[in-house]
Structures are given as C-alpha cells and as structure tokens.
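[recover] target loaded
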C-alpha cells in the first residue's frame, strides 16, 4: 500500500511540474522579471536588471532496483537557456562517453540498466543538477540520493504455528528495509489478497486477525526486485476450533520506536493473543486515543495503529494496552517526527557598489535543526576575512569587488533532506546610483551617496591624514579639510582601507557633514593596512588623499571562544557538555576549563578538561544549569563561550507528599487533603497523585485512584458506614511513582445527618457596630443532627433584604464592610442546606459617626446590648513532642484530652502548630494547620533549636497554646566555606606565615576543625596539596619552614560531625625575600625558637614589658637593639645568679625539725583537701590526680578556652636519648605538680606526621613564674614556663625555690646554646614515672628541674596565679608519640653532693617505704583506668 501511494504521489507531482513548465513557457518576459523581484527595465536605462534564473524541477530521492532504468528530473529556466550538467558525489559526470547515462533534452539524467553488486556500486550515490549561463553565473539544485535495493536477504522467515478460531496470528518475513515494497505473500502457492482482516506490516510481517478455518494452509513470502523472485520457507498455519480453556495474554508483536517525516504515514504494530480474546486500545502520553472519531488514526488488523499524514504534534510515546478481562499487558513505543528544511526567509537580489558591505539573509527551519552553507556560482563559499557567516545563517561580504558579482545560493540540509534558495548580486559603477532605497541588506557603512550627482567643482584631496590612535584591532584616523574648501562644513568623507597586498578595498563613512575623524574597527592585530580618504560634496566625490600605511599593534595570542558548545542530559544527575576547537586557537590549546552554575544561584564551579567533552555528575535532579567553556594556551585563558543552559532529566519523586490529612464528610465519604513533596525532592513535574486506601479491620484489597498533579484533595466516596479506612498518597512524575506517605486512618460516621428538612434557627446572633462596618458573630443551631451547608447573612438600611452574603458552614463570624456611618442597619441570619433556608434570626445596629473612633461602647437598637459571649475555652493539647527526622524536618505529635480514648477525630476541629527559633531574637512565629494529631514541619535550618506549641480550635472555641516542646535539627555538613581568609608573614620569621580566617556563614553544626591546603601550584590536583589539620574552632594557624620568595596558594575547608564542607577560594601569598634577619638553617636551629614551638602561656595577668621587646607575634627584637639587649641580659643574669646562689646556700642549711613539721603539714594540706578529720582519716597523697580539680575532656579539644594560634612543628634533627640522672627525681609532693600547658598536643600540626615524624612533647625544666619568658630553648614556643609552687606560702619565698641545677641551665641559656633533646617512647604513658625519686633537700617546694607530665594539670598555689587549666587524660589508653625531653646540664659536683646529703636527712626510711607503697597502689589504679 505504501509503495502504491508513493507511486501515485510521484505521478501527481510530475504532472504538476509539467503543467508549470508549459505555463512558464508561455509567460511573457515581463512576468519572468517580476518573479525574480527585479524592477521593470525602461527603454534607454543604463542600469542592468536582474536576470530570472531558477530551477523548474529539481531531482528527488529515488529507490531503484538492479537492472532497471532511472530518471532524475531536472529543468532550469533562464534567458538565454542554461547549460545543464550533473554532479555525482561532488564530481562532474562525463556524459559524452557514458553508454548508460545520458542527458535528456529538458536537462534530466537518464540511467539505463542500473548496476549494483556487493563490491561495485557505480550508480548509487548523491546527484546534483548544475545549470550555467555564460557571462551570468551558475546555480545548483538540491542533492538527491539514488538508492539501489540490494540482494534479497531474509532476516526472519515464517514458522509453523497454530491458532484458535477468532484469535490473531502473525507470520514473520523480514527483509532489507529497501526491499519491503517488493514483498508479497502467497497462501497455498496462490497470491494472498490483503483486506481489513489480513494485513502486511511495513516490515513485511503478515498479520491475520479474527482467524477462520479458511486461514489455515501453507504460507510463504516472495521478494520480486527485478531479478528472479526470492522465496522464503513455507510455514503451515493450523486453525484450531474454539476452546473454553483460558490462556495467558501475550504480545505476538509489540510496537517499536519509529522516525517519520512530516506528511508520511506511520504504522505502530501491536498484536496480542490470549483466551478470552483481548481487546486493543491505544494511549498517547497517558491519554486515550479515540480512533473511531479521528480521520488520521486507523486501527488496523490485529490492533496495529496507523497514523496517516504525520504532523509534528503526533510525536510522543504511544502505549498499546491489551485487556481480556482477566489480565492486562502494556507495551510502548516512541514516535519521532522530523521535518525537511524549509525557508522562512529567502535571499533577495541586491544592487551594490564596489567597496560596499552587503548581507544576504537566509532563515530556515526543520527538525533536526538544519545546517546552512553558501554557494557562489556553484562553488562553495569558504568563510574568510571578507566572507563571513553572521547570525548563524546570513552571508556577509565585505569590501565588494567586481568579481563578487553572480548568483549566491543558501543551501539548508539536515538528516531528512535539503533545500536551496538563491539571489543575484549586481555591482554597479560608482557613477550609477542604486535605483531603489537602500535595502536592509546593505550595512550602515555602505549607505553613501545614492542620489545622482549634479555638475560642479569637486573637492580636492583631504590634507594631513594621520593615524591619531593605533590599537590592536582598531585605528582612529584624523585629517584636515581639502585646500579647495577650507571650511568644509558641508563635506562628507569616506575612508577607504585594505590590507597590504590585498586588492579588496573597504570603506567607512563619517557620521555627519564636517566630521573629520573615523575609527575603523574589526582590524587584525600586527597587520599592515593602507588608508586613503576622499571628500564628497553635492557634486560628487573628489580626489583621494595619498595612501597612508599603518600597522596595528600586536596582541597576546589568546584562544577564541570554543564553537558549537552543546549540552545534553545523560541522567537525572549528570549532563554532558561538548564543544569544538576554537577557530582562532593562536597556538596549541593546552586545556579547557568548563564552568557551570545552577540556575538562580551565583556560585559558579569549574573543572579542568583536556578533551572536547565532559560529563558533570552529582547534579541536582530536574534542575537547570548553565555552562560555558574557556580555552587555555601557553599565554593564558581565552575568550569565554556564551552560556548554554540545560536541565537534568526528571526522576521519580524522592519524598512523599506532605501533611496528609483526612476529613470525614459523612458515613460514606472521606475527603483527603495533602501538599506536594518538598520542591527539592519532586525531581520533575508532578503529573499526578496515586491514592491507595483499604479497610483497616483486615487485610482487604487495596483500591487505587489517580488524580491530576494540580489537584491537592480528593473526595473518596462509596465507603462503608462506621468503618475505619487507611489512606496513603504518592506523587507521580513521567518517570514513575515516588514513595508514599505513611498510612493514615479515619472512620466514617455510623449515620448521616438529616437533610430532609431545613436547618433550625441559629442559637444566637450578636452584632458589633463600627464606623463603616459591623462585625456579626453567631452560634450554630442547637439541633446538631440536621445538616448545615452554610449561613446566609442579609443586611440593609431599614430592611435586611438589600444585600445577601453566604458563608461556609464552618464560619462563625463575618465583618460587613463598606457601610455608611450613623446609619440604622437591619441584619438577618439563616442557616441553609440543600433543602432550603431555615428560620431567620434578626438583629439591628447603628453604625458609629465619623467622629467616634472608640471601639469600647457597643449599642444595639431595639434590644438590650448583650456582648458576644466568650465560648468556654477548650483544653490545650498535651504531650507535645518534637521528633527530629533530619537536618530540616521535625515531626510534631501531641494528644488531645478532649477526644475519646482512641484519639479519633470525628468532628471539624483542627489544630494550629506554631514554631520559631530564638536566633535571631526577633524571629516571628510560623503557623500551620493540621487535622490530625501530628504535623511534619519542613524547611528548617540545620543544627538549630526550635520551640513548638499547639492549640486546638473547634468552631468558635479555641484552646490556649500548649506547653512548648523543643527540638534541635540534626547537623549537616557545612554548606559554605570559611570566609575572610588572609595570610600574613610572621614578623622576624620570613619562613613562617600565619593564616587567619572566619567561620563559615553556614556551619550547620559545631565546627570541630579545619583543614588548610597549601601548594605552590594552584592548578595541582587537590590530593597533591599539603594538608594542615586544625583541631577545634581555632581561627588562626601558623605554618613554618616555607621557601623564601615563593608564591603559595591556600584553601581552607571546615568540618563538623557530619563531614567536610566546601573549600574556600584559593588565596595567594608570596613569602618575603631573604633579609639580614634570615640566617642560615643552622643559625635558626641554635639561636631561635625550634620548629613546632609555640608561644608561652603568659597567664591572664601578663602585661607587655615597657621596652617592647615582645611583639604581638612573639618575634625577637630588631637587629639594631640586639647587641645592647645582649649586654643588658648578661649583666642582669650575672647579678641574678650571684644573688640566687647566696640565697640557695642559705636555704640548704635550714634542715631542722621545724622544717620537717612544716613538710608534714604541707602533705596534709596538699594531699587531703577533703579529709580534715583525725589522723586515721588521713589518706596517702594522690601523686598524680586531684579528683576535685581534674576535668576529663576529649583529646581533640584544646585545654585553652580561647585558643589563639596553632603551630606546625617541623623537626630539624633528632638527638640520641640521654640518660636521666638523679636530677630528674623528686619527692612525692613534687610529683603532684603537673605541667600547665596552654595548648593540647592535638593543636600541633600533623604535617610532621605526613613526613614520617610525630609531634614533639617538650618537658620544661624552668621554674620561673609565668610572667618570665625564656629565650633560646627549643621549647620556647611550645611549652610555657612552669609556675613555682610552695606548700606554705606564708613562710616560703617563691624565689627560694630555684635550685642549683637551674643555675646551670640558666648559664647555658645565656651562652646561647640550645639544650639537648631526646625522643622517649614509653610503653605506657605513665611508665616513665613509675619509680619514686630521692627527695631533694630544703623546704617542700616545687623543684624546677623535674620534667612535668603533659597528661595532668594542677592549679598553682601561689597567690599571684589566678588561672587554672585542666589537661586531658583521654589519651591514657592510646600509644603516645615520642616525647622530646629537655635534659639540663648537670649541676656542679659540690652542689650535687649537698643535694644528696640533704635528701638523706629529709625522710626516714619508713616514711620512704610508705610513700613507695602508696605510689605503687596508685599506679595500679591508673592502669585500671587506662585499660577501662
């Protein structure tokens, strides 16, 4: 059928063109000229006219068979007659010596005995007709494809089958697509006649519907394609008698996706089989198709769908639904409709002068979108500096020359076909004016003197032409008036210019008479141009100035924009972007940067790409994004492309509808209300909602109902009386069904209200008059068993019948507006239902005068005033609870004591939920209503405390707000980066920088730390950057040992308990160059603070010295004062040493019984703060832990409540472990004092860990007060000076606590030598201190030579220390990193001997034994704590 229809269409088309040819042959020349749009040529005119030159018939796509003859039609019209030639695949055919191909008189191509084989296909290809008129030009036709059907091959053949009477059967016979028109069927070796019951599908398959016994037999298909016929295998079809046995419903033939061109026919096959016999119906985009009433839709045999004369609106998804009463099956297929190129605007003929700029316009449409190319006189126009494609399809010719004359054709082409349209260009002499007004195809630079010139003197050449401004792409020219016309007020000028060595010349005109400057734009960089200027007056053009040679400036050769950028969605969360290499790459393109941004936001992201395409994953579903591409070469980034917008694909909703509520209407219906899912979870256009409900008493069948996407409520009717039902709702998109809500139950009424009579009179009516309004309130009728559909309020001056207003049955008050002041109104109220209106209730009131603004006194005429009674308030909801569901959702639940025990709502009450947060303090409440005992509050902020309360309303009665419930939403990863990132150099330490920042504006939780990334290459992969962790909420960090005079780039991201947030933008910082203060590394190691050092904790009472030696960053003094400072320090040190030695000698001799008693008293005070009873209550002292003073903290928190700065320890070199001598020992009381650090070890940078090192832990041996800073020790910046402590501060001078070992260490410090360090790796954190030491002599004071443990901290007892800090013991169970222990120089032999002697006289052996026993017991307790 399709072949027959094609033949008829071809015959009618040929007849039509033949008639057109006959008519045109008789047409007068004037008519032909009119067709081409040329003006009539008057006798004696010197203007050439446009010559009609066009195709009458163009070749069409043709299908042929091997050995047959083919005619490709072509006919062109022109005066004189054109010469016709043919091209095949772009090459001219030599028809003179060709035996099989010959040119017919009308220009058509005749091919006899078409040749086609597997390896030789000389006739198949693309043909084009070329018409030429000498001295006029050439035009080309559209391209036609000649296809030769191949040898018959069966991809499927009929098979033996059986079918019940009345059912459908199919017999496959699928061949090459180009041979389908040549397929026919035979039954029992006789030609098979096709009818409404027997159908041959476009694929060749035979369909027999409603089979009868006569359909049985042997079937075969035959392909007749010019040669001997090709037969398929024979297959027998058996027709079985009817049976009552049921069989499964299956598809014998399912529809497959099709692509059709507008005007063609489309057949969607669909054949189903089963018992009972199925019926077939079709749907398009989920809408049923009415094939009976449509003229273009026909249901063929078996249920296939034929669409004739396909239109663009027919595109879409078609569903074939087969149903036999027992089951339903469904299949679908996509129909794509394409359109051949069509011209919306064709090129028009143009007159022009030389040096003008012209534009041929061409606008096309088609599907897929056609591509456009231009042809001049049959040759392809290649874009160049003077031939440009503008506005996608238009051709612009710059600086016309005589050789540009001819015929220009716009050729549009897509996958479906191609079309051409042309126009002629005639270039006139300069002394011939263009005959018509300048057409729009002329640019503004070419609209010069078009009127004929009159005779008279012409201007001479302009003088002093100079280039006053020369840039890369434009040149500004200025000149003086010609000598013949010094004033030159009426002169206009033209600037002619061309590239050096190019004959094609262009020009620019001045804007107004008298102007003597022109800026020539769109030039090429580093190019030489030749300029000349010519003046014009009313008589014509004057002399030209001397040529001026000017070269434009060179510019950095950056890439141009990448052409043909396209984006398409590959999934609901990914989009692929493609582009091509820039036309002006200006060198090798190194890479591309793809920028993308979500629509409606201002945060643009980018990714580096090395190819011409990239797929961006992790996008939001059904969200529009914009994309642009920037190419990079060795000079940097080029010109960005225009933004391209595209939307990710839709998906099923990822959340259920919100706030589902049920309203029982009567005994047989329930109204369901809901709200759409949150916008971010809809993932597409909501096309509908699926409601599922069932009885709750037993597991009954589930009933489904579909409603449109715009509907947010549905009345479910036909329910049973007094029955509880469960309901749930799910949202739908074109992709499917999303998650459903939880089941929600409601029970229908046992009996319906009476609506056989009108309602009774309302129980009360009250009015409250104001100046221009009256507030009316009422209560419902006392008989609640009669249905009330609403209330009718009538009012008017003197009569209540002037105006009537109807309100809903739930309403209990109404304000009548726009009344007259000081007027007497009569008001009536009636309840009504479907039967009618009830008995009215009357009231009257006088509105107040204009002057009365009070609202206190109320007057009622003809009745004593009765104020509106306040209804008895309802009980507020109880048990309000807030259940946290996510970072932005909280479910509120409550109970209502005014409901029955089963808490089922059977009346019209509703609940109001309000919520707010106290940050900021002026936040207003938000409200929402609910008809159930729960409500889902969405759209909340992460990690925010909200308070909720609920009230209930029933009619005019409302409760007070319930008690508040509080809930804090879950944390979410930070959604914004840290802000205000700054980098500064540390004063005096050029290799050290300080990074400062502010917390992210959207932290979404408690910030537990930051990560600093830094690198010298901003384009490096992020895993190649150095990582600096910062623990806690510190806002500054110090990084050491950077390379001098090197640019570094820094990024920061914040983290909370949920994960890492986004990174900040990269901040660049260049380290300073080396100066006099930047010594060699060895100098830094010995003469300055060590790596990983930290500023000492100077205490809260510390004040900056007056001499200003300590800078805010702890930097040393300036080089100018270093010598003076050294002299002062040495002098003061020597004096201090002498004084301290004298005091120490004096103190060591005081070993009397009085000191022993004092020591015992000190033990009692420090060892038993809580035990002040008799001697038997006194317990041995805690050597390590003060239970009432120690606070257990997580190890990742800093002990300092206000951290200032963290440091990055970079180890220089490690020294061997030095044995610890007796100077490390101390008495038990001294062991109770612990290190007071201002930073935890976790505040150190883990950069050392990345380099195979562990953070160091410094053991200070200095006992100076916290106010005394220490220089030239590797622990200066990390460990603070330990405070001296005394037992009895009333009798002991703190300065007396200085030992001889400290004197030795102090002398070493003044000499500028650094103390040795050793790495100690104890097997247990406390094992290094498991052996008690020999107590030193003297009063029981804190010995400064003892290394303090970093695990515990104790408050100093000195009166001048006010701050107390606690250290964490959260790491007792972990393995400790190596701890560098500072070992001071050994004291003099004489002093050591004295210390040992004093220690022997300080403690008795039994006391020492007790202390040892107590220490061992305490160590067991600590081991138990750590293992727990």
């Amino acid at each position: 059928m399709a072949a027959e229809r094609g033949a008829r269409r071809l015959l009618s088309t040929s007849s039509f063109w033949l008639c057109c040819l006959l008519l045109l042959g008789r047409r007068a020349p004037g008519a032909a000229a009119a067709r081409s749009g040329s003006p009539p040529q008057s006798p004696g005119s010197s203007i050439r006219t446009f010559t009609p030159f066009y195709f009458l018939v163009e070749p069409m796509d043709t299908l042929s068979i091997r050995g047959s003859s083919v005619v490709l039609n072509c006919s062109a019209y022109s005066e004189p007659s054109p010469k016709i030639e043919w091209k095949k695949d772009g090459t001219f055919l030599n028809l003179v010596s060709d035996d099989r191909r010959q040119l017919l008189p009308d220009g058509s191509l005749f091919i006899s005995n078409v040749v086609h084989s597997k390896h030789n296909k000389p006739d198949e290809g693309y043909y084009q007709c070329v018409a030429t008129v000498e001295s006029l030009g050439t035009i080309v036709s559209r391209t036609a494809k000649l296809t030769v059907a191949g040898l018959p091959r069966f991809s499927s053949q009929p098979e033996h089958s059986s079918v019940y009477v009345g059912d459908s059967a199919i017999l496959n016979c699928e061949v090459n697509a180009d041979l389908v028109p040549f397929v026919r069927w035979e039954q029992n070796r006789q030609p098979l006649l096709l009818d409404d019951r027997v159908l041959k599908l476009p694929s060749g398959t035979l369909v027999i519907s409603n089979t009868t016994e006569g359909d049985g037999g042997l079937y075969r298909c035959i392909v007749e394609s010019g040669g001997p016929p090709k037969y398929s295998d024979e297959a027998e079809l058996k027709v079985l008698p009817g049976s009552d046995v049921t069989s499964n419903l299956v598809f014998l033939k399912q529809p497959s996706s099709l692509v059709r061109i507008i005007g063609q026919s489309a057949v969607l096959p669909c054949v189903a089989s089963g018992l009972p016999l199925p019926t077939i119906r079709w749907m398009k985009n989920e809408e049923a198709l009415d094939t009976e009433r449509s003229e273009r839709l026909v249901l063929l045999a078996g249920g296939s769908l034929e669409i004739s004369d396909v239109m663009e609106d027919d595109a879409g998804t078609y569903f074939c639904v087969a149903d036999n009463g027992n089951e339903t099956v469904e299949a679908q297929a996509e129909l794509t409709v394409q359109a051949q190129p069509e011209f919306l605007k064709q090129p028009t003929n143009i007159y022009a002068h030389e040096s003008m700029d012209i534009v041929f316009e061409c606008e096309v449409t088609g599907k897929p979108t056609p591509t456009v190319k231009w042809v001049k006189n049959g040759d392809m126009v290649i874009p160049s500096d003077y031939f440009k494609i503008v506005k996608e399809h238009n051709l612009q010719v710059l600086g016309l020359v005589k050789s540009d004359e001819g015929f220009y054709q716009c050729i549009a082409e897509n996958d479906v076909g191609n079309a051409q349209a042309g126009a002629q260009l005639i270039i006139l002499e300069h002394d011939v004016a263009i005959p018509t007004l300048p057409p729009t195809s002329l640019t503004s630079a070419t609209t010069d003197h078009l009127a004929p010139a009159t005779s008279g003197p012409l201007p001479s050449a302009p003088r002093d032409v100079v280039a006053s401004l020369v840039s890369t792409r434009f040149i500004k020219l200025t000149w003086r008036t010609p000598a013949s016309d010094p004033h030159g007020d009426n002169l206009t000028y033209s600037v002619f210019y061309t590239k050096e060595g190019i004959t094609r010349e262009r020009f620019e005109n001045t804007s107004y008479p008298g102007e003597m400057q022109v800026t020539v734009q769109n030039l090429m960089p580093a190019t030489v141009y030749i300029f000349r200027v010519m003046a014009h007056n009313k008589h014509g053009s004057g002399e030209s100035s001397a040529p001026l040679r000017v070269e434009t400036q060179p510019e950095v050769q950056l890439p141009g924009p990448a052409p043909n950028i396209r984006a398409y969605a590959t999934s609901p969360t990914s989009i692929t972007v493609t582009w091509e290499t820039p036309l002006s790459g200006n060198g090798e393109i190194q890479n591309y940067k793809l920028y993308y941004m979500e629509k409606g936001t201002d945060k643009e992201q980018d990714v580096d790409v090395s190819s011409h395409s990239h797929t961006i994953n992790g996008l939001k579903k059904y969200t529009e994004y914009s994309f642009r591409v920037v190419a990079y070469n060795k000079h940097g980034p080029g010109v960005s492309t225009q933004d391209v917008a595209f939307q990710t694909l839709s998906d099923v909703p990822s959340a259920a509808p919100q706030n589902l509520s049920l309203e029982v209407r009567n005994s047989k219906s329930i109204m369901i209300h809901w709200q759409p899912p949150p916008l971010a979870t809809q993932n597409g256009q909501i096309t509908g909602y699926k409601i599922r409900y069932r009885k709750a008493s037993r597991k009954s069948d589930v009933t489904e109902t579909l409603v449109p996407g715009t509907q947010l409520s549905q009345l479910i009717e036909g329910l049973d009386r007094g029955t509880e039902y469960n309901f749930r709702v799910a949202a739908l998109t074109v992709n499917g069904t999303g998650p459903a809500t939880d089941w929600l139950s409601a029970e229908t009424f046992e009996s319906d209200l009476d609506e056989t009579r009108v309602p009774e009179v309302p129980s009360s009516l009250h009015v409250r008059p104001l100046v221009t309004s009256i507030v009316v309130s009422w209560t419902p009728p006392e008989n609640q068993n009669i249905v009330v559909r609403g209330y009718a309020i009538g009012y008017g001056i003197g009569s209540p019948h002037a105006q009537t207003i109807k309100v809903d049955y739930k309403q209990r008050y109404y304000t009548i507006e726009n009344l007259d002041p000081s007027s007497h109104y009569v008001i009536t109220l009636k309840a009504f239902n479907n039967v009618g209106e009830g008995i009215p209730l009357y009231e009257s009131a006088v509105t107040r005068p204009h002057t009365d603004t009070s609202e206190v006194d109320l007057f009622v005429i003809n009745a004593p005033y009765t104020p509106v009674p306040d209804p008895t308030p309802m009980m507020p909801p109880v048990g309000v609870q807030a259940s946290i569901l996510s970072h932005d959702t909280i479910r509120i639940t409550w109970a209502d004591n005014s409901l029955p025990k089963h808490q089922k709502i059977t009346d019209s009450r509703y609940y109001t939920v309000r919520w707010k947060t106290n940050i900021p303090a002026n936040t207003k409440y938000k409200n929402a209503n609910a008809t159930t005992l729960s409500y889902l509050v969405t759209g909340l902020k992460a990690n925010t405390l909200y308070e909720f309360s609920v009230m209930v309303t029933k009619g005019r009665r409302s409760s007070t707000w319930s008690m508040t419930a509080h809930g804090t939403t879950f944390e979410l990863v930070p959604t914004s980066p840290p802000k205000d990132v700054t980098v500064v150099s540390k004063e005096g330490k050029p290799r050290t920088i300080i990074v400062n920042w502010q917390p992210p504006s959207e932290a979404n939780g408690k910030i537990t730390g930051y990560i600093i990334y830094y690198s010298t290459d901003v384009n490096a992969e992020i895993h190649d950057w150095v990582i600096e962790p910062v623990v806690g909420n510190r806002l500054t960090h110090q990084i050491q040992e950077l390379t001098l005079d090197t640019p570094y780039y820094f990024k920061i991201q914040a983290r909370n308990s949920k994960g890492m947030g986004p990174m900040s933008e990269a901040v660049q910082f260049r380290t300073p160059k080396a100066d006099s203060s930047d010594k060699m590394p060895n100098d830094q190691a010995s003469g300055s603070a060590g790596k990983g050092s930290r500023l000492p904790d100077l205490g809260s009472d510390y004040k900056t010295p007056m001499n200003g030696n300590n800078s805010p960053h702890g930097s040393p003094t300036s080089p100018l004062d270093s010598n003076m400072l050294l002299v002062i320090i040495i002098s003061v040190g020597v004096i201090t040493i002498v004084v301290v030695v004298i005091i120490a000698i004096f103190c060591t001799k005081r070993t009397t019984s009085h000191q022993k008693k004092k020591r015992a008293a000190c033990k009692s005070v420090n060892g038993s703060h809580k035990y002040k009873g008799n001697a038997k209550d006194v317990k041995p002292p805690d050597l390590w832990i003060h239970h009432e003073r120690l606070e257990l903290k997580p190890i990742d928190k800093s002990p300092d409540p206000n951290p200032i700065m963290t440091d990055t320890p970079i180890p220089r070199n490690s020294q061997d472990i030095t044995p610890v001598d007796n100077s490390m020992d101390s008495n038990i009381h001294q062991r109770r004092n612990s290190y007071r650090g201002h930073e935890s070890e976790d505040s150190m940078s883990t950069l050392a860990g990345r380099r195979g090192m562990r953070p160091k832990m410094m053991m200070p041996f200095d006992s100076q007060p916290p106010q005394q800073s220490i220089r030239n020790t590797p622990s200066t910046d990390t460990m603070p000076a330990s405070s001296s402590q005394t037992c009895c501060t009333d009798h002991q001078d703190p300065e007396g606590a200085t030992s001889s070992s400290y004197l030795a260490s102090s002398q070493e410090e003044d000499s500028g030598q650094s103390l040795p360090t050793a790495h100690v790796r104890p097997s247990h954190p406390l094992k290094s201190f498991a052996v008690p030491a020999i107590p030193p002599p003297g009063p029981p004071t804190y010995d400064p030579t003892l290394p303090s443990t970093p695990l515990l901290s104790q408050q100093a007892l000195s009166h001048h220390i006010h701050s107390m800090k606690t250290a964490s013991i959260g790491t007792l169970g972990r393995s400790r990193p190596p701890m560098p222990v500072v070992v001071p120089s050994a004291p003099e032999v004489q002093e050591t001997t004295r210390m040992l002697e004093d220690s022997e006289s300080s403690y008795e052996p039994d006391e020492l034994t007790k202390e040892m026993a107590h220490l061992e017991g305490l160590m067991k307790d600590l081991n138990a704590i750590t293992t727990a």
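[recover] notes: The chain has eleven helices and 89 strands.
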